[in-house]
Amino acid sequence: MSDLSPKPLVQVRDLKMHFPIFSGLLRRRSGAVKAVDGVSFDVFEGETLGLVGESGCGKSTCGRAVLRLYDITSGSIAIDGEDIAKSSQSDLRSKRSLMQMVFQDPMASLNPRMTVEAIIREPLDEHTRLSSAEKREKVLELMDAVGLNRAFSGRYPHAFSGGQRQRIGIARALALNPKFIVCDEPIAALDVSIQAQVVNLLEDLQDQFGLTFLFISHDLSMVRHIADRVAVMYLGRIVEIAPADQLYAAPRHPYTRALLSALPEPDPSLENTRERIILKGDVPSPANPPKGCNFCTRCPDVMAICRDQEPPEVDIAPGHRTACHLYSS
Amino acid sequence: MTETAPLPPVRSQWWDVWDQFRQHRGAMIGLGFLIFITLFVIIGPSLWGLDPNETDIRNKNLRPFYTGILSGEKWSWAHPLGSDNLGRDVLANLMQGGQISMAVGWTAMILSLVIGTLVGVLAGFFRRIDGLLMRFTDLVLSLPLLPLLLVMMLLFRDTLRAAFGPETGIFILIVVGIGVTSWMHTARIVRGDVLTIKEREYVLAARSIGTPARRIITRHLLPNVMSPIMVSATLGLASAIITESALSFLGLGFPSDFPTWGKLLFDSVDRMASFPERVIWPGLCISLTVLSVNYIGDGLRDALDPRLRGQ
Known about the structure:
The complex is a heterodimer of chains A (329) and B (311). Chain A is α/β, with parallel strands linked by helices. In chain A, 29% of the residues lie in helices and 25% in strands. The A-B interface holds A 64, 67, 69, 90, 92-94, 96-97, 100-101, 103-105, 108-115, 122-123, 126-127, 140, 150-151, 153-154, 156, 158, 169, 172 and B 4, 7-8, 10-11, 13, 200-202, 204-212, 215, 219-220, 223-224, 304-307, 309.
């Protein structure tokens, strides 16, 4: 749907986030963990971009770096046309109301010493000049919007179940009417039945408020359900980005193929014929990635050039990009 | 909007804290005793009316009423807890001394708590000044405290006396001396806790909202490091009272006509065998006050934790 109105709300270009490693007696800088190493993508207004990959590939770091929760190493991030890559944290403060985040662990992302009302009110306290009665009214409206009972506003987070806590986190993210929300594995810590509720809630809210999501997850089937487009990350890079249907129907990059082959098939007759591509070996350390293509150590279709040159990103179909030497010539 | 019943009026969470606090029996007893001892030392002297420094040579070395009644030694209702070797009333001394001891204890404890928390939070939260502040803490920690206090007394006693009068001057000197030499443990504990808490996701969430550092500290960090601060506070009160006694014992504290619990204790140590009550009463005052503050801190810590509340 978003391809018809291609107006990117978020433009990320060559984003790099390296964490320095200090070692030795003098704590000298001896290297860097290249958690995110040259990532580019657009998120169009009103769409959901899914970001998938195995754990440790830099998905969460990427999401946090896009919101400038880290001071990024290099690259550019434009949100709503404004470049925020080099803004100072105090300049960013006024733009924080545009972009918000839903966190992975609803136990850890809520201050145990604050009531639900205080938690949801915090963004209002920081960015608005409403009276306390207006703030309270707004908090209660938000609690209605995410399906929490108004009577619970005076309770503390420990009194809620995981799904309810995640709703509190979502209500906090919605408080300032943001345009762009990074959902950092919002369902990973929840039961399966609650996962569906939370995902449906996110979809409803997207329709209701016209939100744009960057949905980070390792749950491939959930991403297929919620995302319009999907980006696949491996070792700090995006290896393939495509509209969701296209990616799941015809994955091109060998890593995507291997990843999707792990997805169980609901139809038993098809399930029997499903071929799993089992990758050998472990993910290389992001502190010391291999020369050439990051995936060359485990790729079933590895060629000589892969160990030597980084693959360029190529468009193989409209909106379908991949970084692989198989398609580069 | 139709099905929402009117919400119950907002109840201040301090009422919940009080309700939980009342559940803690030790804390309630402690609070009761602390109120009693505070009234004892503040209102007591005006009710009792005897001057603690008035010497009454004919009535010296009186025993307290209970030993007097039991063993028939010399005693009098005019001095129910007895009198010392100069005939000074022990009860009046206890009241007067308590005033000073409590004032010194509380003020020095609060001072060291404020310094310790400030240093700990700043060192834990701002990585850039962490090394500097913690090395400074180590430096102060490694100083020998009594000689340091001694030098402080010698250097500043006369100036402060001249500026604020003999009593207030020495009071300020002792409080500041104890305060600036006892904040290091609090600072270390608080720094350690801040280091773990600032990595929690709710602090990250606050940053993603755009909360500035100072409000992250007051809103998210301080309430969550409350428990260790409370524990150091209760310990700090005890050690402040005892340090003041040690200073008085060395002759560096208040002047000799100025009773404090610690000084009463030390003055009576050499005649402890014949007059045990002169050691027991001030000692009991110190330990019961410290104990009750400990229990209050315990109850307060439980009451302030929403996870424990209502259980």
